[in-house]
Fold this protein.
Amino acid sequence: MSSEGESGALPVAVRWFGVASLMTDAAGELIYPLLPLFLTSVLGGSAAFVGVIEGGAESTAALLKLVSGRISDRLSRRKPLVVLGYGLTSAVRPLIALASSQWQVLAIRFLDRAGKGIRGSPRDAMVADLTPRESRGRAYGYHQAMDNAGAVLGPLAGFAMMTGLHLGLRTIFAWAAVPGALAVAALLAIREPARGGPEVSSKAIPGAMSEALETDPSHGLRPLVPYLAVLGIFTLGNASDAFLLLRAAEVLHPGSVLGSAILADPKLLLLWSLHNAVKAVLSYRAGALADRYGRRLIVGLGWAVYAVIYLAFGFADSAWQMWVLFAAYGVYYSLVEGAEKALVAELVPKQRRGSAFGWTSAVVGAFSLPASALFGYLFALRGPALPFAVAAALAAIAALLLGLVVKPAREERPSQ
Protein backbone atom coordinates (compact mmCIF):
# COMPACT_ATOMS: atom_id res chain seq x y z
CA MET A 1 0.00 0.00 0.00
CA SER A 2 1.22 3.43 -0.72
CA SER A 3 2.64 5.54 2.01
CA GLU A 4 0.05 8.16 1.30
CA GLY A 5 -2.79 5.82 2.03
CA GLU A 6 -1.03 4.52 5.13
CA SER A 7 0.01 7.77 6.74
CA GLY A 8 -2.62 10.32 5.61
CA ALA A 9 -4.54 11.99 8.41
CA LEU A 10 -8.09 10.85 8.94
CA PRO A 11 -10.91 13.40 8.49
CA VAL A 12 -11.80 15.48 11.55
CA ALA A 13 -15.39 14.20 11.42
CA VAL A 14 -14.16 10.61 11.72
CA ARG A 15 -12.20 11.56 14.83
CA TRP A 16 -15.21 13.23 16.44
CA PHE A 17 -17.31 10.20 15.62
CA GLY A 18 -14.65 8.24 17.48
CA VAL A 19 -15.09 10.41 20.56
CA ALA A 20 -18.88 10.03 20.42
CA SER A 21 -18.58 6.27 20.06
CA LEU A 22 -16.06 6.07 22.91
CA MET A 23 -18.51 7.79 25.25
CA THR A 24 -21.54 5.86 23.99
CA ASP A 25 -19.83 2.52 24.43
CA ALA A 26 -18.49 3.48 27.85
CA ALA A 27 -22.13 4.03 28.85
CA GLY A 28 -23.37 0.88 27.15
CA GLU A 29 -20.65 -1.42 28.42
CA LEU A 30 -21.12 -0.11 31.94
CA ILE A 31 -24.49 -1.88 31.72
CA TYR A 32 -24.16 -4.68 29.16
CA PRO A 33 -21.87 -7.17 31.00
CA LEU A 34 -24.12 -6.93 34.08
CA LEU A 35 -27.45 -7.04 32.26
CA PRO A 36 -27.71 -10.85 31.84
CA LEU A 37 -26.97 -11.22 35.55
CA PHE A 38 -29.48 -8.50 36.43
CA LEU A 39 -32.13 -10.27 34.38
CA THR A 40 -31.44 -13.71 35.84
CA SER A 41 -30.46 -12.99 39.46
CA VAL A 42 -32.54 -9.87 40.22
CA LEU A 43 -35.57 -10.13 37.92
CA GLY A 44 -35.74 -13.93 37.78
CA GLY A 45 -35.38 -14.35 34.04
CA SER A 46 -34.10 -17.38 32.12
CA ALA A 47 -31.38 -17.88 29.53
CA ALA A 48 -34.07 -18.20 26.87
CA PHE A 49 -35.56 -14.82 27.84
CA VAL A 50 -32.09 -13.25 27.71
CA GLY A 51 -31.89 -14.53 24.16
CA VAL A 52 -35.28 -13.05 23.28
CA ILE A 53 -34.37 -9.64 24.72
CA GLU A 54 -30.93 -9.42 23.13
CA GLY A 55 -31.93 -10.95 19.81
CA GLY A 56 -35.06 -8.83 19.58
CA ALA A 57 -33.20 -5.65 20.50
CA GLU A 58 -30.49 -6.24 17.92
CA SER A 59 -33.07 -7.12 15.28
CA THR A 60 -34.83 -3.83 15.98
CA ALA A 61 -31.57 -1.92 15.52
CA ALA A 62 -30.69 -3.75 12.34
CA LEU A 63 -34.06 -3.29 10.66
CA LEU A 64 -34.17 0.40 11.53
CA LYS A 65 -30.75 0.81 9.92
CA LEU A 66 -32.39 -0.15 6.64
CA VAL A 67 -34.95 2.63 6.99
CA SER A 68 -32.50 5.27 8.21
CA GLY A 69 -29.96 4.37 5.56
CA ARG A 70 -32.45 4.79 2.73
CA ILE A 71 -33.72 8.06 4.19
CA SER A 72 -30.17 9.40 4.55
CA ASP A 73 -29.47 8.68 0.86
CA ARG A 74 -32.30 11.08 0.01
CA LEU A 75 -31.19 13.88 2.32
CA SER A 76 -28.54 16.47 1.60
CA ARG A 77 -27.04 15.80 5.05
CA ARG A 78 -27.01 12.65 7.14
CA LYS A 79 -25.99 14.26 10.46
CA PRO A 80 -29.52 15.00 11.82
CA LEU A 81 -30.35 11.29 11.83
CA VAL A 82 -27.03 10.53 13.51
CA VAL A 83 -27.67 13.04 16.31
CA LEU A 84 -31.24 11.76 16.78
CA GLY A 85 -30.02 8.18 17.13
CA TYR A 86 -27.28 8.95 19.62
CA GLY A 87 -29.64 11.17 21.59
CA LEU A 88 -32.35 8.50 21.91
CA THR A 89 -29.89 5.87 23.11
CA SER A 90 -28.31 8.20 25.64
CA ALA A 91 -31.70 9.22 27.03
CA VAL A 92 -33.28 5.78 27.56
CA ARG A 93 -30.33 3.57 28.48
CA PRO A 94 -30.02 4.71 32.15
CA LEU A 95 -33.72 3.93 32.68
CA ILE A 96 -32.78 0.28 33.19
CA ALA A 97 -31.90 1.40 36.73
CA LEU A 98 -35.64 1.85 37.34
CA ALA A 99 -36.82 -1.42 35.76
CA SER A 100 -38.81 -3.77 38.00
CA SER A 101 -39.67 -6.47 35.45
CA GLN A 102 -38.15 -8.29 32.51
CA TRP A 103 -40.66 -6.69 30.16
CA GLN A 104 -39.58 -3.20 31.16
CA VAL A 105 -35.99 -4.14 30.38
CA LEU A 106 -37.19 -5.48 27.04
CA ALA A 107 -38.87 -2.16 26.20
CA ILE A 108 -35.85 -0.11 27.25
CA ARG A 109 -33.46 -2.30 25.27
CA PHE A 110 -35.67 -1.95 22.20
CA LEU A 111 -35.59 1.84 22.47
CA ASP A 112 -31.85 1.77 23.13
CA ARG A 113 -31.25 -0.31 20.02
CA ALA A 114 -33.73 1.80 18.04
CA GLY A 115 -31.37 4.71 18.62
CA LYS A 116 -28.53 2.59 17.30
CA GLY A 117 -30.60 1.69 14.28
CA ILE A 118 -31.40 5.31 13.50
CA ARG A 119 -27.77 6.46 13.65
CA GLY A 120 -25.85 3.43 12.36
CA SER A 121 -26.25 3.48 8.58
CA PRO A 122 -26.11 7.27 8.17
CA ARG A 123 -22.96 7.45 10.29
CA ASP A 124 -21.21 4.63 8.45
CA ALA A 125 -22.15 6.19 5.11
CA MET A 126 -20.81 9.56 6.31
CA VAL A 127 -17.47 7.95 7.14
CA ALA A 128 -17.29 6.50 3.62
CA ASP A 129 -18.40 9.79 2.04
CA LEU A 130 -15.73 11.82 3.84
CA THR A 131 -12.79 9.38 3.69
CA PRO A 132 -10.52 8.62 0.70
CA ARG A 133 -11.14 5.18 -0.75
CA GLU A 134 -7.73 3.79 0.08
CA SER A 135 -8.04 4.82 3.74
CA ARG A 136 -11.52 3.53 4.55
CA GLY A 137 -10.29 0.41 6.29
CA ARG A 138 -8.20 2.59 8.59
CA ALA A 139 -11.09 5.02 9.12
CA TYR A 140 -13.50 2.28 10.15
CA GLY A 141 -10.74 0.63 12.15
CA TYR A 142 -10.08 3.88 14.02
CA HIS A 143 -13.77 4.32 14.73
CA GLN A 144 -13.97 0.78 16.07
CA ALA A 145 -10.81 1.28 18.13
CA MET A 146 -12.37 4.29 19.85
CA ASP A 147 -15.65 2.40 20.22
CA ASN A 148 -13.76 -0.45 21.84
CA ALA A 149 -11.75 1.85 24.07
CA GLY A 150 -15.06 3.02 25.52
CA ALA A 151 -16.04 -0.62 25.92
CA VAL A 152 -12.90 -1.08 28.03
CA LEU A 153 -13.55 1.97 30.20
CA GLY A 154 -17.20 1.08 30.85
CA PRO A 155 -16.63 -2.33 32.49
CA LEU A 156 -13.60 -1.02 34.40
CA ALA A 157 -15.72 1.81 35.77
CA GLY A 158 -18.40 -0.71 36.71
CA PHE A 159 -15.82 -2.92 38.42
CA ALA A 160 -14.58 0.05 40.44
CA MET A 161 -18.12 1.03 41.40
CA MET A 162 -19.01 -2.52 42.40
CA THR A 163 -15.86 -3.49 44.31
CA GLY A 164 -14.47 -0.14 45.46
CA LEU A 165 -17.58 1.93 46.08
CA HIS A 166 -19.87 -1.06 46.74
CA LEU A 167 -22.64 0.38 44.61
CA GLY A 168 -25.63 -1.71 43.61
CA LEU A 169 -26.47 -2.67 40.04
CA ARG A 170 -29.22 -0.08 39.71
CA THR A 171 -26.95 2.76 40.84
CA ILE A 172 -24.26 1.64 38.42
CA PHE A 173 -26.78 1.61 35.58
CA ALA A 174 -27.88 5.16 36.42
CA TRP A 175 -24.32 6.46 36.02
CA ALA A 176 -24.50 5.60 32.30
CA ALA A 177 -26.27 8.94 31.81
CA VAL A 178 -23.00 10.87 32.17
CA PRO A 179 -20.96 9.48 29.27
CA GLY A 180 -24.14 9.33 27.19
CA ALA A 181 -24.56 13.09 27.49
CA LEU A 182 -20.91 13.67 26.60
CA ALA A 183 -21.37 11.55 23.44
CA VAL A 184 -24.17 13.78 22.20
CA ALA A 185 -22.09 16.89 22.97
CA ALA A 186 -19.20 15.54 20.85
CA LEU A 187 -21.46 15.32 17.80
CA LEU A 188 -21.99 19.08 17.84
CA ALA A 189 -18.37 19.51 16.69
CA ILE A 190 -18.99 17.56 13.46
CA ARG A 191 -19.56 19.56 10.29
CA GLU A 192 -20.97 17.76 7.28
CA PRO A 193 -20.94 19.42 3.86
CA ALA A 194 -23.96 18.97 1.65
CA ARG A 195 -23.53 15.96 -0.60
CA GLY A 196 -23.74 15.92 -4.37
CA GLY A 197 -20.20 16.70 -5.53
CA PRO A 198 -17.56 14.23 -6.68
CA GLU A 199 -16.39 11.66 -4.19
CA VAL A 200 -13.38 12.59 -2.08
CA SER A 201 -10.19 10.71 -2.92
CA SER A 202 -6.50 11.40 -2.54
CA LYS A 203 -5.66 9.81 -5.90
CA ALA A 204 -7.35 8.85 -9.14
CA ILE A 205 -8.80 5.37 -9.67
CA PRO A 206 -7.91 4.26 -13.18
CA GLY A 207 -10.32 2.67 -15.60
CA ALA A 208 -13.60 3.59 -17.21
CA MET A 209 -15.45 0.92 -15.24
CA SER A 210 -14.53 2.52 -11.91
CA GLU A 211 -15.84 5.87 -13.13
CA ALA A 212 -19.08 4.31 -14.34
CA LEU A 213 -19.71 2.57 -11.04
CA GLU A 214 -19.33 5.85 -9.14
CA THR A 215 -21.61 7.91 -11.38
CA ASP A 216 -24.36 5.52 -12.44
CA PRO A 217 -27.03 5.13 -9.73
CA SER A 218 -28.72 2.36 -11.71
CA HIS A 219 -25.77 0.13 -10.85
CA GLY A 220 -27.64 -0.25 -7.57
CA LEU A 221 -27.15 -2.90 -4.95
CA ARG A 222 -26.79 -6.01 -7.10
CA PRO A 223 -23.11 -6.62 -6.24
CA LEU A 224 -24.11 -6.68 -2.56
CA VAL A 225 -26.61 -9.56 -2.87
CA PRO A 226 -24.14 -12.50 -2.70
CA TYR A 227 -22.51 -10.96 0.36
CA LEU A 228 -25.87 -10.52 2.06
CA ALA A 229 -26.73 -14.19 1.46
CA VAL A 230 -23.47 -15.36 3.02
CA LEU A 231 -23.82 -12.87 5.86
CA GLY A 232 -27.23 -14.35 6.68
CA ILE A 233 -25.68 -17.80 7.16
CA PHE A 234 -22.99 -16.40 9.44
CA THR A 235 -25.49 -14.38 11.47
CA LEU A 236 -27.66 -17.42 12.09
CA GLY A 237 -24.74 -18.76 14.14
CA ASN A 238 -23.88 -15.41 15.72
CA ALA A 239 -25.99 -15.33 18.89
CA SER A 240 -25.88 -12.54 21.45
CA ASP A 241 -22.62 -12.08 23.32
CA ALA A 242 -24.70 -12.25 26.50
CA PHE A 243 -24.39 -16.03 26.21
CA LEU A 244 -20.62 -15.78 26.41
CA LEU A 245 -20.98 -13.97 29.73
CA LEU A 246 -23.41 -16.58 30.99
CA ARG A 247 -21.01 -19.28 29.88
CA ALA A 248 -18.16 -17.57 31.71
CA ALA A 249 -20.30 -17.34 34.85
CA GLU A 250 -20.94 -21.09 34.67
CA VAL A 251 -17.24 -21.89 34.33
CA LEU A 252 -16.13 -19.45 37.03
CA HIS A 253 -18.75 -20.87 39.43
CA PRO A 254 -19.14 -24.61 38.73
CA GLY A 255 -22.38 -26.04 40.04
CA SER A 256 -24.15 -22.70 40.27
CA VAL A 257 -27.44 -22.09 38.50
CA LEU A 258 -28.86 -19.14 36.62
CA GLY A 259 -30.57 -16.81 39.03
CA SER A 260 -28.04 -17.42 41.79
CA ALA A 261 -26.62 -14.28 43.36
CA ILE A 262 -23.13 -15.77 43.04
CA LEU A 263 -23.32 -15.08 39.29
CA ALA A 264 -23.04 -11.34 39.97
CA ASP A 265 -19.28 -11.71 39.79
CA PRO A 266 -17.25 -8.53 39.14
CA LYS A 267 -14.64 -10.65 37.35
CA LEU A 268 -17.08 -10.80 34.46
CA LEU A 269 -16.55 -7.07 34.02
CA LEU A 270 -12.81 -7.64 33.81
CA LEU A 271 -13.28 -10.43 31.27
CA TRP A 272 -15.41 -8.16 29.10
CA SER A 273 -12.96 -5.33 29.53
CA LEU A 274 -10.11 -7.60 28.38
CA HIS A 275 -12.11 -8.55 25.31
CA ASN A 276 -12.67 -4.91 24.43
CA ALA A 277 -9.07 -3.94 25.21
CA VAL A 278 -7.88 -6.41 22.57
CA LYS A 279 -10.31 -4.87 20.09
CA ALA A 280 -9.17 -1.36 20.97
CA VAL A 281 -5.52 -2.24 20.43
CA LEU A 282 -5.94 -4.21 17.20
CA SER A 283 -8.88 -2.65 15.34
CA TYR A 284 -6.98 0.19 13.66
CA ARG A 285 -4.16 -2.06 12.49
CA ALA A 286 -6.64 -4.70 11.30
CA GLY A 287 -8.37 -2.01 9.24
CA ALA A 288 -5.03 -1.12 7.66
CA LEU A 289 -4.47 -4.80 6.83
CA ALA A 290 -7.87 -4.87 5.13
CA ASP A 291 -6.83 -1.86 3.04
CA ARG A 292 -3.64 -3.63 2.04
CA TYR A 293 -4.61 -7.27 1.55
CA GLY A 294 -8.30 -7.02 0.69
CA ARG A 295 -11.45 -6.68 2.73
CA ARG A 296 -12.93 -10.01 1.67
CA LEU A 297 -9.82 -11.92 2.78
CA ILE A 298 -9.75 -10.30 6.22
CA VAL A 299 -13.49 -10.80 6.79
CA GLY A 300 -13.20 -14.48 5.84
CA LEU A 301 -10.25 -14.90 8.17
CA GLY A 302 -12.22 -13.29 10.98
CA TRP A 303 -15.18 -15.61 10.47
CA ALA A 304 -12.86 -18.63 10.54
CA VAL A 305 -11.35 -17.40 13.81
CA TYR A 306 -14.89 -17.01 15.18
CA ALA A 307 -15.66 -20.65 14.34
CA VAL A 308 -12.63 -21.92 16.24
CA ILE A 309 -13.30 -19.71 19.26
CA TYR A 310 -16.98 -20.64 19.52
CA LEU A 311 -16.19 -24.33 19.32
CA ALA A 312 -13.71 -23.87 22.17
CA PHE A 313 -16.25 -21.94 24.27
CA GLY A 314 -18.56 -24.93 24.23
CA PHE A 315 -15.98 -27.23 25.78
CA ALA A 316 -13.97 -24.90 28.02
CA ASP A 317 -14.05 -25.90 31.68
CA SER A 318 -11.55 -23.71 33.53
CA ALA A 319 -11.15 -20.04 34.39
CA TRP A 320 -7.87 -19.57 32.50
CA GLN A 321 -9.52 -20.82 29.32
CA MET A 322 -12.20 -18.15 29.70
CA TRP A 323 -9.53 -15.43 29.88
CA VAL A 324 -7.81 -16.77 26.76
CA LEU A 325 -11.07 -17.14 24.82
CA PHE A 326 -12.38 -13.67 25.66
CA ALA A 327 -9.06 -12.19 24.49
CA ALA A 328 -9.19 -14.29 21.31
CA TYR A 329 -12.78 -13.18 20.73
CA GLY A 330 -11.44 -9.63 20.64
CA VAL A 331 -9.13 -10.68 17.80
CA TYR A 332 -12.14 -11.88 15.80
CA TYR A 333 -13.93 -8.57 16.25
CA SER A 334 -10.83 -6.60 15.31
CA LEU A 335 -10.55 -8.44 12.04
CA VAL A 336 -14.14 -8.04 10.90
CA GLU A 337 -15.61 -4.80 12.28
CA GLY A 338 -13.73 -2.37 10.05
CA ALA A 339 -13.21 -4.70 7.10
CA GLU A 340 -16.92 -5.57 6.79
CA LYS A 341 -17.91 -1.92 6.58
CA ALA A 342 -15.16 -1.09 4.10
CA LEU A 343 -16.22 -4.03 1.93
CA VAL A 344 -19.88 -2.97 1.93
CA ALA A 345 -18.95 0.65 1.11
CA GLU A 346 -17.02 -0.45 -1.96
CA LEU A 347 -19.44 -3.03 -3.34
CA VAL A 348 -21.93 -0.28 -4.25
CA PRO A 349 -21.82 3.23 -5.73
CA LYS A 350 -21.61 6.11 -3.29
CA GLN A 351 -25.21 7.19 -4.00
CA ARG A 352 -26.45 3.93 -2.47
CA ARG A 353 -24.15 3.53 0.52
CA GLY A 354 -26.74 4.43 3.14
CA SER A 355 -29.10 1.85 1.65
CA ALA A 356 -26.28 -0.71 1.42
CA PHE A 357 -25.44 -0.39 5.10
CA GLY A 358 -29.14 -0.52 5.85
CA TRP A 359 -29.69 -3.74 3.90
CA THR A 360 -26.63 -5.29 5.52
CA SER A 361 -28.06 -4.48 8.93
CA ALA A 362 -31.51 -5.69 7.89
CA VAL A 363 -30.09 -9.12 7.07
CA VAL A 364 -28.32 -9.19 10.43
CA GLY A 365 -31.56 -8.15 12.12
CA ALA A 366 -33.64 -10.75 10.33
CA PHE A 367 -31.39 -13.54 11.61
CA SER A 368 -30.34 -12.16 15.02
CA LEU A 369 -33.58 -12.94 16.82
CA PRO A 370 -33.89 -16.56 15.62
CA ALA A 371 -30.15 -17.03 16.18
CA SER A 372 -30.27 -15.89 19.81
CA ALA A 373 -33.61 -17.57 20.52
CA LEU A 374 -32.40 -20.89 19.10
CA PHE A 375 -29.08 -20.60 20.92
CA GLY A 376 -30.85 -19.87 24.21
CA TYR A 377 -33.22 -22.80 23.71
CA LEU A 378 -30.39 -25.25 22.97
CA PHE A 379 -28.35 -23.81 25.82
CA ALA A 380 -31.17 -24.40 28.31
CA LEU A 381 -32.10 -27.81 26.87
CA ARG A 382 -28.75 -29.46 26.12
CA GLY A 383 -26.08 -27.36 27.80
CA PRO A 384 -23.37 -25.25 26.13
CA ALA A 385 -21.56 -27.73 23.85
CA LEU A 386 -24.30 -28.16 21.22
CA PRO A 387 -25.27 -24.50 20.58
CA PHE A 388 -21.64 -23.40 20.44
CA ALA A 389 -20.79 -26.23 18.01
CA VAL A 390 -23.73 -25.34 15.74
CA ALA A 391 -22.67 -21.69 15.71
CA ALA A 392 -19.10 -22.67 14.87
CA ALA A 393 -20.23 -24.85 11.97
CA LEU A 394 -22.35 -22.06 10.46
CA ALA A 395 -19.46 -19.60 10.73
CA ALA A 396 -17.09 -22.03 9.00
CA ILE A 397 -19.57 -22.56 6.15
CA ALA A 398 -20.00 -18.81 5.75
CA ALA A 399 -16.23 -18.23 5.66
CA LEU A 400 -15.90 -20.78 2.87
CA LEU A 401 -18.79 -19.36 0.85
CA LEU A 402 -17.48 -15.82 1.20
CA GLY A 403 -14.43 -16.76 -0.83
CA LEU A 404 -16.48 -18.65 -3.42
CA VAL A 405 -19.43 -16.39 -4.22
CA VAL A 406 -18.52 -12.81 -3.22
CA LYS A 407 -16.53 -10.97 -5.87
CA PRO A 408 -13.80 -8.65 -4.61
CA ALA A 409 -14.58 -4.97 -4.88
CA ARG A 410 -12.50 -2.92 -7.24
CA GLU A 411 -10.78 -1.00 -4.42
CA GLU A 412 -10.30 -4.13 -2.36
CA ARG A 413 -6.95 -4.89 -3.97
CA PRO A 414 -3.75 -3.36 -2.60
CA SER A 415 -2.70 0.01 -4.01
CA GLN A 416 0.38 -0.11 -6.17
The chain has a mean pLDDT of 78. The radius of gyration is 20 Å. The longest helix spans residues 353-382. Residues 205 and 211 are 8 Å apart (CA to CA).
